[in-house]
Request: fold
Amino acid sequence: MASTAVSNPAVNNSDRSLLRRKKKKKIPNQNQNLRNQAQAAQTEWKSDTQQQAYSSKLLQALRRVRITGGAAPKGGRAVREAADRVLAVAAKGRTRWSRAILTNRIKLKFMKNSASHKRQRVTVTTGNSRRQKKPRVSILRLKTKNLPAFQRKASVLGRLVPGCRKQPLPVILEEATDYIAALEMQVRAMTALTQLLSGASSSSSSSSASSSSSSSVNALNQLGSSRHPPAS
Amino acid sequence: MSSRRSRSRHSAASRITDDQIIDLVSKLQQLLPELRNRCSDKVSAARVLQETCNYIRSLHREVDDLSERLSELLANSDTSQAALIRSLLSQQS
Reply:
């Protein structure tokens, strides 16, 4: 009896310690996986193939916007929306901001008529809730994080990155990291596209600039042919 | 006192570690063109957040400017070039 009584707690302790060990193993593995994923995504935004794919898809989307016409969203705004949409698609749904961009467009499409009214109402309620609630970002030992200035900046950042208004701080930071890389790629691709198109249109007027126009046409050809990037 | 208690409750529930946040902030700092060269000791986390907001806003502005230019170019390029581009794209479909 005494021996069993002694052995049981020992067994329990070992079970508990095993469980504890298992739990401890899981969490760092998850973190490591997430970090690797984040790093892989980072390098992906910088790759040339990603930029090529984005440029060609953007070109197609822009063509569709032009051909279907509708000056409803004014020129530049339509281009911006198409560019953001293609960027979000390029993210392949791995990040919150990309999903938020895509769902927002669907929401706006359905709520076209009452969009302005709803937006007004929404801003009022969020303003009130912000005043009543304390900031949800609860951070802990670092002294700066409890400063209201820091919290304010974190919430501003959350508002800038689509889909991150009510997310806790580490989520906002992660999303911002990926979002910045994606935006940089967007800028690079659109700059290159603008140069191509401006080169093409300027050379069309001058008859002797056949070489430059052909080079830009070749570049555009490359864009068109790179529609199906190699699956990696 | 109550704030300390609530803080510990939050920390137990959310498991967001300090190191995690420091790591994320440093990663963010590496991306910012302003702060990349500076040694990380001198840059506070608030500064990183501020620069991030500024950088994202400037990127947004750049994209807006580029969209304007692109829309103008596409609107004005109703020339043979546009038809050429269109035919190139339709070939790939």
In short: The two ends of chain A are 64 Å apart (CA to CA).
